[in-house]
């Protein structure tokens, strides 16, 4: 049985992605070429990375995740600020922060982690920290975050969680939305559209 690399995330509206791409351009000018920048199509708020999942388990994964998303009402998200993991003194990842919405994002992440474990996905070992990865440094090094221009503030309403597939290629990961799981109380008779890729 073939497996599919997949993850669960909040998809960004196109205007939010455009703003982050502008921020990446400014950071690219300030930093040397030793950064691998996140492709605009891959900018999203990851909630749970599932890794390789047997394709025949994906419908079950989606069905187990749905009750978890229905327990969280749609909420506002504000993206603001800039930081680095693990620290600015030894930066490996540059990220944009979440100034509003981190509590419901963390609640979703915990619920989806538990749901995914029911289909054999390994549980998370570290607490969830909401962020958007803008780029990864090829070699860890100090980065003067305070001298870099942070992204303009971005606000949007999160209304669904998306199960994405992620296919690796020489041009980077190609993400495809497989299933959209609504937040909050569903309309009567909600049926999951498992799409042609599941």
In short:
By secondary structure, this protein is an alpha+beta fold. It contains 3 helices and 9 strands, in the order βαββαββαββββ. 31% of the residues are buried.
Number of helices: 3
The H-level CATH homologous superfamily, spelled out, is Cyclic phosphodiesterase
Taking the alpha carbons of the first and last residues, their distance comes to 13 Å
**Main beta sheet strand tally, sense and closure:** 5 strands, antiparallel
* Strand fraction: 35-45%
If you compute it from the alpha carbons, what radius of gyration comes out, rounded to the nearest whole angstrom? 17 Å
Structural class: alpha+beta
Describe the structure.
- The protein has 3 helices and 9 strands, in the order βαββαββαββββ.
- 23% of the residues lie in helices and 39% in strands.
- Strands 2-6-5-4-7 form a 5-stranded antiparallel beta sheet, sandwiched between helices. A 4-stranded antiparallel beta sheet has the order 3-1-8-9.
- Strand 8 (160-167) and strand 9 (174-182) form a beta hairpin.
- The protein is globular, with a radius of gyration of 17 Å.
- The chain has 198 residues and is α+β, with helices and mostly antiparallel strands.
- The protein starts with a strand and ends in a 16-residue tail after the last strand.
- The protein has one domain (3-182): Cyclic Phosphodiesterase, Chain: A, CATH 3.90.1140.10.
- The mean pLDDT is 90.
- Helix 2 runs antiparallel to helix 3 (102-117).
